[in-house]
Amino acid sequence: MTMLFEPYDLGDRRLANRVVMAPMTRARAPQEIPDAQTALYYRQRAGAGLIVTEGLPVSEEARGYLYVPGIFNDAQQAGWTQVTDAVHAEGGRIFAQLWHVGRVSHVSLQPGGAAPVGPTGQAAADVTAFTIGDDGKAGPVPVSTPRPLSTGDVARVTADFVRAARRAIDAGFDGIELHGANGYLFEQFINGALNDRDDRYGGSVENRLRFLMETIDAVAAEIGMERAGVRISPFGRLYDMRPFADEAETWVQAAAAFQSRRLAYVHLSDQLTIGAEKMPETFAADFCRTYRGTLIAAGGFDRHSGEAALQAGQLDLIAVGRGFIANPDLVERWRHGHPIAEADRATFYGTSGARGYTDYPVWSADMEAAA
Fold first, then answer.
1. Which of 128, 161, 198, 346 has its CA 20 to 30 A from that of 294?
2. The NADH:flavin oxidoreductase/NADH oxidase N-terminal domain covers which part of the protein (predicted)?
3. DSSP symbols for 163-225
């Protein structure tokens, strides 16, 4: 029996199938406000059991890339309301991914031209932000040297996440996902090789996890734990994340903290194909033995590998990113064995209009005849 297309109960929300559209930055909002094209893009892909949006900056300080729609002002909230209405009109479910890039930013993107923030004053090596360069054109620019957040500032950033979570629920989202992966702010605090703090947010595993866990608790107090998920990338190496001595122990302790909180889900981002360290042999079993709630993973799944992971009992839901770009009807294509279209990489980010965004067709009888 095929599990991919079975419904799944995520708390009190029934998902139509077990395929999740993974978060993907597209940089398609020139005013950084969701517009009609944004709503159409997500509406077209509402056949996923669950959509997790692109990362939404929770404040101006949280930005690291131009043209990414945030969720920290009234206009953005109104734009996202149009998106959630469109997805719900098709019977879909959608969570907002809440994002702070931390040190992966540039002074030109920061309020008043200030330095970006992070756990440390160490700049990320060989990492770029996306902003206006010296030539006046948008493109990759080396990140600026950050300033370390003070102990008090950490609470301020947590409050930004709480406000963004409230805006997300008021905009009609079914829940939120905290972006704790891919070398951004929460992972910067968790990483034992980068975090050189001597306050309550540095040193021990518990201290390095504290910022994320305090934010989860504060967000849950505002919107309910059943509406809060988290994404992490154990052993990831994006954006100058370095190996550290107690790496496996850190992520297993995180699993225990997630289990005690009864989150909506934990979403694992497997970066093995893009430079992540190979996980220790026992790590996956240790993590799953410790965290027993709903588990999602993203990592290059196709129909067959996703089905195998579900059948093996390793995962409850499988997340797919790029497959949804050129196949808005990806779930139906998988269900019926239709060919999978390839996306145009040149239009992944930052272009305007429909091209490479909302102009990919669903499978049709005419395409069947042509095939």
1. 161
2. 4-338
3. HHHHHHHHTT-SEEEEE--TTSHHHHHH-TTT----STTSSSHHHHHHHHHHHHHHHHHHH-G
pTM of the model: 0.96
The rounded distance, in Å, linking the Cα atoms of 201 and 199 is 5
| Cα-to-chain-centroid distance, residue 179 | 5
Question: Which are the catalytic amino acids?
Answer: 184
- Residue-wise pLDDT tens digits, 251-301: 999 999 999 999 999 999 876 555 566 777 788 889 999 999 999 999 889
Rounded (5°) CA angle 312-318-319: 160
**List of residues 6+ apart from 152 with CB closer than 8 A:** none
CB 189 within 8 A of CB 203: no
Tell me, which fold does domain 8-370 have in CATH? Answer: TIM Barrel (3.20.20)
Q: What residue type is 46 in one-letter code? A: A
Which residues is 140 bridged to in the sheet?
A: 130
CB 50 within 8 A of CB 10: yes
Closest Cα partner for 216 from 266, 250, 172? 266
The residue ranges of every structural domain in the chain are 8-370
Handedness of CA 342, 345, 349, 352 (dihedral sign): negative
**What are the start-end ranges of the E strands in the chain?**
8-10, 13-15, 19-21, 50-57, 94-99, 117-118, 128-132, 138-142, 147-148, 175-179, 228-232, 265-269, 295-298, 317-320
Q: Pick from 185, 206, 207: which is nearest to 197 by CA?
A: 207
